[in-house]
Design brief:
B: mainly alpha, two-stranded antiparallel ribbon
Chain lengths: 282, 289
């Protein structure tokens, strides 16, 4: 190399900064582009009205509502299950074959492609259990997908509760479960909330798992029970972008912007909770 | 002696955590069960064919075009995301001012949080036309377009995991190298990065897993032509996109239906292996610490 070590360092650091700049520019471009093109259509009416004229006009209300239904079902299943699993792993389980197997399963579950969850949901919930394409089948499929997120973040939160809290409670004569329920869980609550919000945001944004388990192209009426199909925001964006020729293009931009705002708003809330929590404990 | 209630609670919690194992086994069993009818010896030639002609009179379900499309797009994405991702990880862990880091880390989480269908839409309206005019093609729906948007998706995974690994290299490595007169950059290249290599590798593996399993964005921008690709500038059809695009229309129980489950099974096996390797590499890192 012809350069002195100091010059090499300068060049190298400049390249590193360039890489970071590249990511920041990408992020700002994506957000800026969608805001610029989508903001004009966002209105109270767009958010709260039904699609009209074969979805070439009108609003996205049923898709928003459908996503809310799906996500509520998802979290109602995944949160208790995930938190209980995490409590077992951190508070009860020893380091044995079973817990290693559970951890391995959680890690691998986190890496399963979303479309494979969709296939499984179709085979198991829709066909074998006979739920049909419905809110129920879609929520259960999404619940399996977010389970690893909730288990991992809850475990993290439980581990951060100081052992002295548990010892003090046990020394006062509380049982192990009383200690967990009254001392450990309240302390870990912000962490668990962060995990749940991240799970919700992941479930709200996913399309592939609900393609064959819940999502409908268009429904003239709002869903009436958990056995009904629903429209959903991410799927609505997909079909508006690729399957509805002649639609007002700003509808797709508006849908994308709404979905992104919901998901990023949730993520941002999770970050805020974590920051506040971190400051308190330090 | 433990109270009955306490014991019941413990058992309930045990069952909950066992659910993770049950679910992953169920996923595997279901994919396998639905794929099985096509895994008989007389169907091998159909699966190993180089054509994906599911609707032909004598249908062929050659997995090769789909597999190669997935690998090509993933390769392109990783070729972009690895250098940029590792550079960013080094910057965040070693050079960035703590205040800048506090802003950049959430920014990268935000990028990770954007739904794939939104990124797919962005790619469709912004990148596809650019690729078409820049390379003077008939269509901008190409493997390259898929790689570009997949790189954006794999980046946060690689940055986060690699940054963790670099940050957890013991300070004494750095101190020793600096005190021998090495510059900060020499220290990074010769002491810190080698020490963090297994974590960085895990990050790359997870990035590959993320890219190969991605569905919506890829389906929206790669043109969906199930042929063996011969360049980055042709339309392709990945395994994920094939399942997503065709499962809605196939009759249940048909050969085509089972073929899509074979594709799912292959996809599951690939990502499972990648995750297993990443996890093993990562665990080895923790043991070293």
């Amino acid at each position: 190399m012809g350069f002195s070590p100091k010059t090499t360092e300068k060049i190298a650091f400049m390249l590193l900064r360039l890489a970071v700049l590249f990511i920041v520019v990408i992020l700002l471009t994506i957000i800026g582009y969608l805001v610029k093109n989508g903001l004009s259509i966002i209105s109270w009416e767009f958010i709260t009205s039904m699609p009209r004229r074969g979805m070439t006009a009108g609003g996205i209300w049923p898709a928003i509502l459908g996503t809310v239904y799906l996500v509520s079902g998802t979290i109602a299943v995944a949160l208790p299950l995930g938190v209980m699993a995490a409590i077992y792993l951190t508070e009860y389980a020893g380091d044995n074959f079973f817990t290693r197997l559970v951890r391995l399963a959680v890690v691998n579950l986190a890496g399963v492609p979303s479309i494979v969850f969709g296939l499984f949901g179709l085979g198991f919930f829709v066909i074998m259990l006979g739920f049909g394409a419905s809110i129920l089948a879609g929520s259960l499929t999404l619940a399996i997908m977010v389970l690893p997120i909730i288990i991992t973040t809850t475990e993290e939160a439980l581990k951060n509760v100081p052992a002295a809290y548990r010892q003090a409670s046990l020394a006062l004569g509380a049982t192990k479960w009383q200690t967990i329920w009254r001392i450990v869980l309240p302390q870990a609550l912000p962490g668990i909330m962060t995990g749940s919000i991240l799970g919700i945001s992941r479930a709200a944004g996913e399309t592939a798992p609900i393609l064959f388990t819940a999502a409908a192209f268009f429904l003239p009426r709002l869903p009436g029970s958990i056995f009904d199909q629903v429209m959903a925001l991410p799927y609505h964006l997909y079909i508006m972008a690729t399957q509805v020729p002649g639609a007002d293009p700003t509808i797709a931009y508006g849908t994308a912007l709404t979905l992104m705002a919901i998901v990023l708003g949730l993520n941002f809330t999770a970050v805020l909770i974590r920051l506040r929590f971190r400051k308190k404990t330090v | 002696m433990k109270k009955f209630g306490e014991l019941m609670i413990e058992k309930l919690l045990l069952v909950s955590s066992a659910m993770a194992i049950v679910v992953i086994l169920l996923i595997f069993l279901f994919l396998f069960k639905e794929a099985l009818p096509l895994l008989t010896p007389d169907n091998w030639s159909r699966l190993l064919s180089t054509n994906w002609y599911p609707n032909a009179a004598n249908p062929e379900f050659g997995l090769l075009p789909l597999l190669l499309s997935s690998l090509l797009i993933t390769f392109g994405a990783i070729a972009i995301a690895v250098p940029v991702g590792i550079a960013t990880a080094i910057y965040l862990a070693e050079i960035a001012h703590p205040k800048i880091r506090e802003i950049l880390k959430p920014a990268i989480e935000i990028l990770a949080g954007i739904p794939s269908v939104v990124l797919g839409f962005f790619a469709l309206v912004a990148i596809v036309p650019w690729v078409r005019t820049y390379f003077e093609l008939n269509t901008g729906l190409t493997a390259l377009t898929g790689s570009l948007i997949l790189a954006v998706m794999a980046l946060p995974t690689i940055v986060t995991v690699a940054e963790d690994a670099i940050s957890s290299v013991p300070d004494r490595y750095k101190a020793a190298s600096l005190s021998l007169g090495a510059t900060h950059w020499q220290t990074i290249v010769r002491a810190i990065v080698p020490a963090a290599l297994s974590g960085i590798t895990a990050g790359i593996m997870l990035g590959i897993g993320r890219a190969i399993g991605e569905t919506m964005a890829v389906m929206m921008v790669t043109g969906n032509a199930a042929v063996i690709p011969d360049s980055f500038l042709v339309p392709v059809r990945t395994m994920t996109a094939t399942i997503a695009a065709e499962m809605g229309e196939v009759p249940r129980g048909s050969n085509h239906y089972h073929a899509l489950f074979v594709v799912g099974l292959v996809l599951f096996a690939i990502t499972f292996t990648i995750n297993l390797i990443a996890d093993t590499v990562r665990r080895r890192l923790q043991e070293v610490e």
